[in-house]
Amino acid sequence: xxxxxxxxxxxxxxxxxxxxxxxxxxxxxxxxxxxxxxxxxxxxxxxxxxxxxxxxxxxxxxxxxxxxxxxxxxxxxxxxxxxxxxxxxxxxxxxxxxxxxxxxxxxxxxxxxxxxxxxxxxxxxxxxxxxxxxxxxxxxxxxxxxxxxxxxxxxxxxxxxxxxxxxxxxxxxxxxxxxxxxxxxxxxxxxxxxxxxxxxxxxxxxxxxxxxxxxxxxxxxxxxxxxxx
Length: 229
Description:
Low-confidence stretches: 214-229
Distance between the termini: 32 Å
Number of domains: 1
Mean pLDDT: 90
């Protein structure tokens, strides 16, 4: 998968094992696997460690206590996966708890979430609070069905997307290939937007830097007035 990502033009890749009730996050095993894969891959791609952290009570408490265990590169940025059936008030309170701890939640693939596909207003409110949004590249291409495609297009039209990721799981069905999604975004929303979502914003997260809205290049997102560590 790493070789395929490099062959498709990726220079950096964030490895994001899950942390959920189904997939227990074992930091020691993750670190060991990450070091081994990094050593094998460093000649053609740079790997970074992260986690797709399911938003449940136990994970929230552990993240607040040990944030760098889960965040990308030990930064302020945390990939957050929401449950399919959500209580909007509870989720917003949990996200705000992370924000108050100066942990920036990046909500992963909301366009594929059954509770959010038909109503992007919730996502708008979370972004206004300071959260960021990452969508899956194959959602633009119909891989996850028409509802996900309509939702991801709507999120893009409302300027509620900050990153496009492969969310790769294998080399065939869900490969680490963003080329088709990049072309789709570039053709529909322009070169500057594509560069922000595929290059500039991911680079900022990797280096724990501030993001700048592509459509408003002189205005930083509200949350990032704290500045880099």
